[in-house]
Amino acid sequence: MDGSSKQQEEDSTFTNISLADDPDHLSRILYPRPKMMNADMDVDAENQVELEEKTRLINQVLELQHTLEDLSARVDAVKEENLKLKSENQVLGQYIENLMSASSVFQTTDTKSKRK
After folding, report:
1. How far apart are CA 58 and CA 90, in angstroms?
2. What is the DSSP string of the chain?
3. Angle 5-25-12 (CA atoms, 0-180°, nearest 5)?
4. Is 17 left (phi over 0), alpha (psi -120 to 50) or beta?
């Protein structure tokens, strides 16, 4: 039964009242049963709750993605700084070694040759 036929049937119910055919018909007209409004409202409320939960989770995922991107960028920056400092340490180590080899204070002395 399509929607228009159903609507026509409901409309004709109010115009063609026959108590002889259906004694409960008048009570159904005067006190109609709810048309599943509560069930529809419950479904809508559930859908709304699910939608809100999905939205919250999506926002949380996006926030975590941004945090991960920030942390990844920070790790890359720290790696670069670490390589730079290692290189500087090698240069300084070589410089100190050259200074020590040029200085007489750090030269090894042959005590036997000086005594003679």
Report:
1. 48
2. --HHHHHHHHHHHHH---TTT-TTHHHHHHSPPP-SHHHHHHHHHHHHHHHHHHHHHHHHHHHHHHHHHHHHHHHHHHHHHHHHHHHHHHHHHHHHHHHHHHSSTTS---HHHHH-
3. 30
4. beta
pLDDT in tens, the chain (116 residues): 555 555 555 554 445 545 455 556 556 656 655 555 566 677 788 899 999 999 999 999 999 999 999 999 999 999 999 999 999 999 999 999 999 888 888 776 655 555 54
Say what the alpha-carbon torsion angle 67, 70, 76, 82 is, to the nearest 10 degrees. Answer: -100
Closest CA to 62 of 54, 72, 50: 54
How many CB atoms sit inside 10 A of residue 13's CB? 13
**Can you read off the two tokens belonging to residue 49?**
């709750």
Rounded CA separation 81/97 (Å): 24
